[in-house]
From TrEMBL:
The keyword Heme applies. Keywords: Heme, Iron, Metal-binding. This is Diheme cytochrome c-type. Residues 38-146, 187-294 form the Cytochrome c domain. Pfam families: Cytochrom_C (PF00034). It comes from Sinisalibacter aestuarii. InterPro entries: Cyt_c-like_dom (IPR009056), Cyt_c-like_dom_sf (IPR036909), Cytochrome_c-type_DH (IPR051459).
Length: 297
């Protein structure tokens, strides 16, 4: 009996060690961005489309203060409340010492420069679809923004969700870099896919999640979801529920006004503010993508 117990204990240790190795934080080396030079102008467009300031600016910031990425906004969820960190150029409290590969690993693998898992409240499950050149461009633009020494505030996440090691298992289940919308897409629809599925991370709010917080795809993709903060819900973007024309969608992304003369509110007002800074062709591309929904049609 003792011999069998020892064997089982050894087997358990091996299984645990193997699991920890499989789910370890992943990082790529400098080769991921080898030969790429970041462009500040393109990087600003990536920054705007990705909505970086909307989450990482100080609460209530406006105008130029939006570009001081001091963090501090809090986002409630069923797993706890997450606080956006300082991602300004401060070398101690922000990301001023990050290299372009550091940024790539954060966006693509959800891994910090210190080799720790990030919580998926940081939407790397969408940003994983960003191209290396887009990341290099974003890094170049971030380097032009101001530094702020405000310390990042800790997340308020209870046990067992505060065990970051478990996030490796979450990534193994749900972190995928393939496109959700497949098929023969025209140029505008392909651009819309980049903006919706990757940069704009629209599904992070507008798609339902399973019990572990993974985004549902297939027929559920962008079909609406409860607000994780517990107040209301995010609307279904798929026809026939979303009946607006492409022109009406473009107008909404530009001005925030709906065809019913309502106005975008809450966090969507920040999204519209970002989209309005993009070329009209990008807003039209998002509309074209949405009109191809639901998937499979």
């Amino acid at each position: 009996m003792r011999r069998w117990f020892v064997r089982l204990l050894i087997l358990a240790v091996i299984v645990i060690a193997l699991g920890l190795w499989i789910t370890r934080p992943r990082s790529d080396g400098a080769e991921a961005l080898a030969g790429l030079t970041g462009d500040v102008t393109r990087g600003e467009a990536v920054f705007t489309a990705a909505g970086c300031a909307s989450c990482h600016m100080a609460e209530g910031a406006s105008d130029e203060a939006r570009l001081v990425l001091t963090g501090g906004q809090r986002f409630a969820s069923p797993f706890g409340t997450f606080t956006a960190p300082n991602i300004s150029q401060d070398p101690d409290q922000g990301i001023g010492t990050w290299s372009a590969p550091d940024l790539w690993n954060a966006l693509h693998h959800g891994t910090s420069p210190q080799g720790r898992h990030y919580y998926p409240a940081f939407p790397y499950a969408s940003y994983i679809r960003m191209e290396p050149q887009q990341v290099a461009d974003l890094h170049a633009y971030l380097a032009t923004l101001p530094a702020d020494p405000t310390p990042s505030q800790p997340h308020d996440v209870p046990f067992p969700f505060n065990i970051r090691t478990a996030l490796g298992g979450w990534k193994l289940l749900f972190l995928r870099d393939g496109w959700v919308m497949q098929g023969d897409l025209n140029e505008a629809e392909q651009r819309g896919r980049v903006l919706v599925e990757a940069l704009g991370h629209c599904a992070e709010c507008h798609s339902p999640r399973n019990a572990l917080g993974g985004l549902k795809t297939g027929a559920d993709w962008l079909s609406g979801a409860p607000n994780p903060a517990g107040r209301g819900s995010f609307p279904d973007l798929t026809p026939p529920e979303m009946s607006w024309s492409e022109a009406e969608l473009v107008e909404y992304f530009t001005s925030g006004f709906t065809p019913e003369f309502d106005m975008a509110g809450g966090h969507m007002s920040h999204v519209v503010q970002n989209l309005a800074q993009l070329p009209e062709s990008d807003r039209a591309a998002i509309a074209a993508y949405l009109k191809r929904l639901p998937l499979g049609q």
